[in-house]
Amino acid sequence: MTRLMLGRTLERICKGVLLLCLLHFLIMMILYFDVYSQRFDLFSRFNNGRNGSRNNGSGTGSGHHYYYYNLSRPNATSATYLAAAEQLVPSLQPENNQTPSPKPLPPCPENPPGLVGRLLIEFSSQMTMERLQKENPNVTEGGRYKPPDCRPRWKVAIIIPFRHRENHLKYWLHYLHPILRRQKIDYGIYIINQLGEDTFNRAKLLNVGYTEALKDAEYDCFIFSDVDLIPMDDRNLYHCYDQPRHFAIAMDKFGFRLPYAGYFGGVSGLSKKQFLKINGFPNEYWGWGGEDDDIYNRITLNGMKVSRPDVRIGRYRMIKHERDKHNEPNPQRFNKIQNTKNTMKKDGISSLTYKLVQVKKYPMYTNISVEIGKPPPRPIKG
């Protein structure tokens, strides 16, 4: 009897120990899976971050750094790794599809390396607009161009007074577009076409060109060029300078010499600030001659000096032609030149009037057609 009771007691004790062991085992399994589920969650976060970066096109060159941890090392908890991940891997947060900002372009060099120097200029080959477009595929509508690899200091509007010179214009575009591109100029070309057959007024057309070009873009430099003058050296850089610039200082028709010290004709350039300082150009020089001397007077009377390139670089060829009809020499030009000091404040860009008829953008230039009126009747000689 005693043995039977002792056996049952031992049996109960064994069952209790077994139950305790089983309970202990279950608790350990619960804790075990809880800890590893947290580790698995951390692995998922790392994998999602890496895959998301790859899917967004990001690699090692995108500025993201990936950190790998040994999560099975002893004496470490999942909470420690989670804290480290939050501190060391901020790139795993969503980036809202942000794109890297483009790298700013460097300034264009003062002396572009692609210049060739002295050029061979001839006017015997056949020239068409189709040929010009093939030669200048990077020029955009309206005759605009901007260098893709550097940042020019100036934004240049090139303004040409015009009437009935279509053949000359083709040669001008043929030579000048490649020159200006090699010079790394940000530019646009504007042909200011005087409609009708009344007396030509070069300086007034240049004022119109200045006004209309500023409606098209924020230019800060203006080059004024006759359509029949081609530079013979691409080192004659078409941008603005600290002083008003006279580019065409040595034309073939003058024996490649400056005809006189105050000559400012052919091709010249002024910054916007310089142009406004002299009140632009005179509007009352109808017919040929005198306006460039008036402009020279305006410059000197306002305390500025004319700058010029070296005579070996400022050489130009002129396309030969007969004098235009309705552009006869102005008999009043000498009297007007002597009165520049009295007239320049009231006659200029501040008093400009004209009628804009049409603005049309062609592949190689922008054509602006205007009506500028007629010259006042000449006083009758008593």
UniProtKB/TrEMBL annotation:
Pathway: Protein modification; protein glycosylation. One of its GO terms (molecular function) is metal ion binding. The keyword Disulfide bond applies. It is found in: Golgi apparatus membrane. Its cofactor is Mn(2+). InterPro entries: Galactosyl_T (IPR003859), Galactosyl_T_C (IPR027791), Galactosyl_T_N (IPR027995), Nucleotide-diphossugar_trans (IPR029044). It is an enzyme of class 2 (transferase). GO terms for cellular component: Golgi cisterna membrane; Golgi membrane. Pfam families: Glyco_transf_7C (PF02709), Glyco_transf_7N (PF13733). It catalyses: N-acetyl-D-glucosamine + UDP-alpha-D-galactose = beta-D-galactosyl-(1->4)-N-acetyl-D-glucosamine + UDP + H(+). GO terms for biological process: carbohydrate metabolic process. PANTHER family: BETA-1,4-GALACTOSYLTRANSFERASE, BETA-1,4-GALACTOSYLTRANSFERASE 2. Belongs to the glycosyltransferase 7 family. Responsible for the synthesis of complex-type N-linked oligosaccharides in many glycoproteins as well as the carbohydrate moieties of glycolipids. This is Beta-1,4-galactosyltransferase.
